[in-house]
Amino acid sequence: MNNQILDLLEFYFGDSNLSRDQWLRTRVCNHPKRYIELKKLLTFNKVQRLRARFQDLQVAVENSNKLELDQTGVYVRRKIPFDTNIDFTRRVVYLENVSQDETIETIKEKLSRFGKVTFVELEWFQVSRQNKGFSFVEFETEEMANKCIETINHEQKKLLESKEEGQVNEGELEPNLKSKSIHDFSLICYSKSTWLEQKEQLEKAMELKYNPFSERNSSVFKIDKLKSHVNRNVLKEFFDWISDGNVKFIQIEKNQTDSAIVRLSENVSAQYILEEAQEHLQRIQEKEGACFVLVEQELQEWLKQSQIDRDNYKRLGYRGKKKH
């Protein structure tokens, strides 16, 4: 248990956690000598689950190369002060098209070949408990992150080329190359800085699409500038995710803009759908694309055409049965 306590305390005071934990960072940085009361750590959930006592925390800190106690043994701090000016985004990589069977532990294990992984962020669907297909991974240094990006993209490029040439047998691949996408496409890896830039570009493109119809509830949305590989299954998975499985109908219009119309089974907050979509649409959409609510005239025209299409489908289907 002593090693578990030590690892936990060093994680709490590590760069990765302090860059995210505002409560702890504020208290550490506001103290003149960067100390915090050791007993405060006894209130942390993970410390309580270990059933650690105050004396256990003292022993762990005494055995640490990164932490130290004051003369009274009541306060603890880092030996090397936390630098608030470090840009931690340079240590973080973004993984897109992560396999659904991956977990925080497996991602950390597989990427540890590039260096020490200090943090893995992986979100999950509430119902299926499968991951959402993307992850943020933080390394101890920027160099490790760059090595990860360069190596993974090189491996995935080789894998994709081999698949296209029919020269690959997945059963013979190295474990680190078995990075199958949830959309049957290769794993993509780039820096969090690049991800933030793409997100900002997408938000700017979508701002023009918000007014005024994002203030209402709606069930019909249009998406422009889809990537060439996107089909109905990809769109359904994406919108089932952000609408809690409420997708009723998807119509892809393969024209100059490669757009699609998604209809949900019930009216939902358009603002919520647009905010969720804008954060992750870069996975299925070109940079200049957008997702927006159909305006009344467009909505009525689409509903009218959809009814005509359904009537034609039923009529043709009925005739087909009669011929047989």
Automatic annotation (TrEMBL):
Keywords: Nucleus, RNA-binding, Transcription, Transcription regulation. Transmembrane segments: none annotated. It holds the Pfam family La. It is found in: Nucleus. Coiled coil: none annotated. It comes from the Eukaryota. Residues 91-159 form the RRM domain. Its main location: nucleus. Residues 1-86 form the HTH La-type RNA-binding domain. PANTHER family: LA-RELATED PROTEIN 7 (PTHR22792:SF62), LUPUS LA PROTEIN-RELATED (PTHR22792). This is La-related protein. It comes from Anaeramoeba flamelloides. The lineage of its organism: Eukaryota, Metamonada, Anaeramoebidae, Anaeramoeba.
